[in-house]
Amino acid sequence: MIADKISPPTLTAGVMMETVKSTCNSAKRSPMTPKAIIHQRFGDKANYEVEEVQDLTQKGCPGLAVRQKGPCLYRCTLLLPEIVVVSDTFKKKKDAEQSAAEIAIEKLGIHQKEYNPTILEAWDDLTERLAFLFSIEFLSSPHPLSGHFRAALRRESHFNGCVPVSVIALYDTRIGNICKHINSGAESSSLLVMSLVLEAAAKQTDMVLSVEEQLSLKRRNPYPPAIIQPSIDHESSLCNGSTIEVVRIPSSRDKDVQMLKLNIAVTGYYLDVIAQELGVCEASNVLISRTIGKASSELRIYSPAPPKRHLWYHSSERDAKHHIHLEGSLNERASYFIGQFVYGDAILASIGYTWKSTDLFHEAVSLRTYYRILVNKMPNGAYKISRDALLAAKLPLAFTTRSNWRGSLPRDVLCSICRFHHVSEPVFSVQLISLDSSQDLPGSHKKMKVMETDREEESEAGVAASCGDLVGSTEAFTCEVKICTKNQELILQCSPRKAYRKQIDAIQSAALKVLSWLDIFLEKPDTPFEKLNAIAEKLDIHLSLRYFSNEFASSDSDHKCGITIAQARKLINYSCSSDVGKDEPYFVVVGGQNSGVTPSNGSLASVCYSVSLVTDGDSLKEHLESCEEFEFEFGNEAVLPDLEAAVAQMAVGQSSNFQTELVPCEFILAAAGDSAVTLSLLSSARSCKLEYNVTLLRVTEPLEERMEQALFSPPLSKQRVEFAVQHIKNVSASSLVDFGCGSGSLLDSLLLYPTSLEKIVGVDISQRSLARAARSLHTKLNSLLDAKDTSSVIKSAVLYDGSITAYDSRLHGFDIATCLEVIEHMEEKDACLFGDVVLSSFCPKILIVSTPNYEYNVILQGSTPQSQEEDPDEEKQAQSCKFRNHDHKFEWTRSQFNQWASDLAAKHNYSVAFSGVGGSADTEPGFASQIAIFKRYDDDYDHDLEAQMEFGHQYADVWEWNIEDLLSKKE
Ligand code: SAH
Ligand code: MG
């Protein structure tokens, strides 16, 4: 019946192409194109915007580097009611669109539900698809497989035109999808897909020929020479062959993983080169894994394929195992790497044909890559990598607040670890509890106590009970997390009793507990089960022994995965370490002047460090890792213990140099730039140590935020936003500039209110904060736009890098300017300078300035909230903190602030009024945050000033979002 639909290949090429195409399009049961699926679901609500891209290789993402020759590529943005996705770049517009649609389908989880054939229909589709792949048209289509087909035509005599079945099974997603409907096991077994393809090829006798004893297929009738020649010439003119670096993972554990160079000739087929290296005959004897790591990567494991005869007789992974087992020994390292069986020696390489280009893509794979992927499978390693600090960072002990967390968030790390280890995604369930009820909730209980103290303090200080913003809500959340097998059997469950004020904090905290436990298990799988269980209990984790050991720990050889994570882990960590937890007190030599500013528990310490591997007596030294600025929450074991112990002894501005025992080798090798030297040092007879050079750059006291969040409801920051919104309404402001915008908290929150604002601008001198602000504004604005949310009419948003004591004419005459909790971060004279510059040059209609009220500190510091477990240092810390935050250069009393503001207003022809948030004006000691509102006397305002002030642009552009640009692209 297939033969009826597809014209015999004796027709001329042109006709042939037409026919095959139309057959594919009209076959209703064929899997639909991504665009068709999107259309079916969203109709004309789906908007494709295609833009031309000039040079994407400049974008600095090495994994995406594409060799390109044409001047112009296309990228497509697909706007859907629910999400917006952006494709990679393509030579053809339509490929960019298909790719965007494909990403959207992936993200929305609409996996071609529409395609639901019977088994017979699926077989038909499979043979039909094969026929299409071997059609003349396909040879020139932009599909990763077509590169293989063209390369196959360059193979020498006997193998000429032979395309490995493994390649067809792997690179064509439609084949994979169809096979799932023939045998559900195909989803997880590429061998099964291969055998189904071979079987389909045997049925499809017109177009495709199954090659005797080879695992490859061939077109029955040769391609017309006129078609073959140009495509080959075209490719050979592009590159002259190259050497690529790959990694060999021997199946024998006695042999080291090592670097290898492969010579890929233009005239050959790269899989033949890999085959040779693996000691098998030719390309079709090579088994290829799915991609490892990022979806965009081409990193795969190549290993010897089982002989053809073994493919025919199995229908599940389990059977496959028994057959292939005979052929080579299990490669445990490689198996752990990809979570599937690998037999025999394996090669890790990043090479292949992609959607992006018809050229062969490849990039070097170093030992470092190998080790980074390896450690990425452990929670601690994944976290270290997200911080790019393998030899400094450590998975923190507890989740305190979002604002203190650095690196990937626990929930995200947990999700990816679950994915790596092939169990289901974790399921979180949040529970709302009331703190008023007298349940036995340790976390909340403590908070209750704190609150009571607050109340006492309040009355002592004479604060009226009416100021209800103190002490806040009585709601809190707990969160439970479950991890199940793919078959939904419960592996473990973590149910912390501690309550959090924010749902998300409760979630992150539960995720972190699971991560901490998994980490202990994965780093030391030898730990006796009783001990693991005891640790689990402490972390509020309950293990389901049976399923846990199935997935992770058992040595039961009959199990579906044969080798468990624990077994594999044991093999890899050829640990040269290390009993890190030392008991003796630890002292380092500290150099530099003592500034007196030291980190205390809960503060954020920022350090600059470098780490080298040194041999005994320092005779040899190899640099491993360094970081200019690394920030971590102090006292939370967020860095290696020795490092934290060293920093504890330092004051801001001081440096120290110290040596520690080695950490497990895989972390060192994942950090090392030159693996060869590092390896030789590690394996030399000399004993090695790690040498750290650390300078304490800064200490940020998060006390202020913590107080503001814990003591005020809504939090003070929210009250400041509401304050600004009120004034925006009063003057129906359309433009706003936030001086010292920090991470954009005000700009961000303004988007949540319906206001008249059309243009918002932020200025700051901290690039790090600006980057954060840009990221968050970008997502928020785009999602507002996607959601066609009409509460915001914002047309443009801009961020500038600059000091607000300097004038930039682009920000002249705005309707409203804000400067919240910023001036106290500058020297007093600069704060005064800012006042002059803003009112004399920027001339906003309204200026709102807020700063802490020094007199209020008694209240704040007398009732330091405890957000954490018992912490005897907390009291000391509160006392030693004269200002609310270590970065504050001053904090003014009410009269100091009034004086400054009144003088300033008088000088520049503004009126000024005073207000505040937190507390009240009428009761001592006034507001927690005092606010001055300056209003321009408009009659005096010189509208031409703008023109006169051609100072040029003092601020550097950091980021800009413009609705006009976005919409014009749409047209
Ligand atoms: N307004 C924000 C941030 C307050 S933190 C909020 O309310 O959340 C103070 C901010 O002022 C920091 O981001 C700091 O980088 C910034 N800052 C300090 N001195 C500055 C200067 N001279 N010019 C611009 N920004 C400054
Ligand atoms: Mg401040």
Automatic annotation (TrEMBL):
Gene Ontology BP annotations: RNA methylation; siRNA processing
InterPro entries (alphabetical): DSRM_2, Hen1, HEN1_dsRBD2, Hen1_Lam_C, Methyltransf_12, PPIase_dom_sf, PPIase_FKBP_dom, SAM-dependent_MTases_sf
Domain PPIase FKBP-type: 598-658
GO CC terms in record: cytoplasm; nucleus
Domain named HEN1 double-stranded RNA binding: residues: 379-521
Residue ranges of domain dsRNA binding in the record: 39-109
Record EC number: 2.1.1.386
Family: Belongs to the methyltransferase superfamily. HEN1 family.
Protein name: Small RNA 2'-O-methyltransferase
Source organism of this protein record: Dorcoceras hygrometricum
